[in-house]
Amino acid sequence: MKKHFFYFIATFLFAVGSISASASSNTKAIRDKVNGMTDAQKEERITQIQQRVEEIKAMDKSQLTKAERKDLRKELKDMNKEARAAHGRTTIVIAGLVIIILLLILIL
Predict the structure, then answer these.
(1) Residues 98, 91, 54, CA angle at the centre, nearest 5°?
(2) Cα gap 22→36, rounded to integer Å
(3) How many Å apart are CA 14 and CA 82, to the nearest integer?
(4) Which residues does 72 contact at the CB level (< 8 Å), separation at least 6?
(5) DSSP string across 40-76
(6) Residues 6+ apart with CB under 8 A from 87
(7) For residues 32-57, b (16+ Cβ closer than 10 Å) or e, as one string?
(8) How many C-beta atoms lie closer than 10 Å to residue 86's C-beta?
(9) How far apart (Å, rounded) are the C-alpha atoms in residues 26 and 81?
(10) How do residues 35-54 score in pLDDT, each as one tens digit?
(11) Rounded to two decimals, what is the model's pTM?
């Protein structure tokens, strides 16, 4: 029974690790860019991002081609990631919490 449980947990951990590893390359570049900024530069960049988002909201998107709409979505996603990095929020990954809890259960 313990072997099956261990194999299940190991498979789950490898699956979660591979998903997070593939998504971190773009966010790492954004995080490095933001870490090199001063607080005043971060606030200025956040203001620029807010203005750009308002411009995009005001656009008539019905006249855009499919590729242009895709580029706008990508730009918004990148700006969202940059704004989150500029605010300096620290998030705890749920998988990490699960791993810690499971290790505590197995040890105790």
Answers:
(1) 140
(2) 24
(3) 28
(4) 56, 59, 61, 64
(5) HHHHHHHHHHHHHHHHHHHS-GGGS-HHHHHHHHHHH
(6) 46
(7) eebeeeeeeebeebeeebeeeeeeee
(8) 21
(9) 9
(10) 777 878 888 888 898 999 99
(11) 0.54
